[in-house]
Amino acid sequence: MDDFAEFYLSGKDAVFRAVLAAGGDRAGAEDAVAEAYARAYARWETVREHPNPLAWVLRVALNVRRSVWRRLRREVLGDPPEQSAAGLEPDGGLRRELAALPRRQREVVALRLLADLSVAETAALLGITEGSVNTHLHRAVQALRHRLHPTRLTGLKPTTEVAG
Fold first, then answer.
1. What is residue 104's three-state secondary structure?
2. I need a surface site. Which of 48, 80, 106, 163 has the fewest CB within 10 A?
3. What gap in Å lies between CA 164 and CA 154, rounded to an integer?
4. Domain 2-81+91-153's class?
């Protein structure tokens, strides 16, 4: 099981960041990642033979998180309370803007940019085409650029002042 320990240590942070970015709070992401790795450990003989074991764990973690989210939405009207993810992101505003994206765009950003999966791996993991991955990523990046830097996109040119 030494190979599982290496697998866990090398991928746990990327999986956590991806699940957190895909939506939800820090505690929920931690729980989903822990559950996914527990399932991987229980099936390690099979999972290690998977073409991409990290993608398998990511998929399980996202599914666990999605199941918890659905249960919470049934039990509590509205969204679960937002919690800080200090130390995991450079800017709290970025996390808020990621959370504002549609679910599929959040998932694609999380898998492609945070977990560093290829387009093909992301497509297989989400059950969509590679073209859809590219489209969702493009739209997400455009939306984030617009929300985070709206003045850059308005066509306004910077003013120059003459020093006197």
1. helix
2. 163
3. 30
4. mainly alpha
Higher pLDDT, 115 or 60: 60
How far apart CA 119 and CA 122 sit, in angstroms, is 5
> pLDDT confidence of 160, banded at 50, 70, 90?
very low
* Residues listed for the chain: 164
- If residue 21 lies in a helix (H) or strand (E), which one and from where to where? helix 2-22
Domain residue extents for the chain: 2-81+91-153
Spatial CA neighbour of 133 closest among 121, 115, 145? 121
Instruction: Output the six-digit token pair for 34.
Output: 């822990």
Is residue 60 within 8 Å of residue 35, measured between CB atoms? yes
Burial of 15-27, coded b for 16+ CB within 10 Å and e otherwise, reads bbbbbbbbbbbbe
For residue range 99-133, list pLDDT tens digits in order.
Answer: 888 989 988 888 888 788 889 888 888 889 999 99
